[in-house]
């Protein structure tokens, strides 16, 4: 697996784990500041993966 995919998987797992275990996210039924930050990191990793895949796609 490439480092881009590793980063995406790590970001996803970290975000999901936080959402499962954060008392504030569960108590307020709204994301806390940490979860918002982790979601941003996940979105950045997802965007980087899409860019990497775009570079690998054949051009016609």
**Main beta-sheet annotation:** none
Query: What is the percentage of strand-forming residues?
Result: under 5%
Query: Helicity level, as a percent range?
Result: over 70%
For the terminal residues, how far apart are their CA atoms?
27 Å
Tally of individual helices: 3
Number of domains: 1
Radius of gyration over C-alpha positions, nearest whole angstrom: 15 Å
- Average pLDDT works out at 87
What features would you describe in this structure?
The protein has 60 residues and is an all-alpha fold. The chain has one domain. The chain has three helices and no strands. It is elongated, with a radius of gyration of 15 Å.
Offer a concise description of the structure.
The protein has helices spanning 3-21, 23-28, 33-56.
Name its key features:
mainly alpha; single chain; 3 helices
List the topology elements.
Layout: H1 3-21, H2 23-28, H3 33-56
């Amino acid at each position: 697996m490439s480092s881009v995919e590793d980063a995406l998987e790590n970001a996803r797992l970290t975000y999901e784990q936080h959402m499962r275990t954060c008392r504030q996210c569960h108590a307020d039924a709204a994301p806390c500041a940490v979860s918002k930050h982790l979601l941003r990191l996940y979105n950045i990793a997802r965007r980087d993966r899409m860019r990497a895949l775009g570079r690998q796609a054949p051009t016609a």
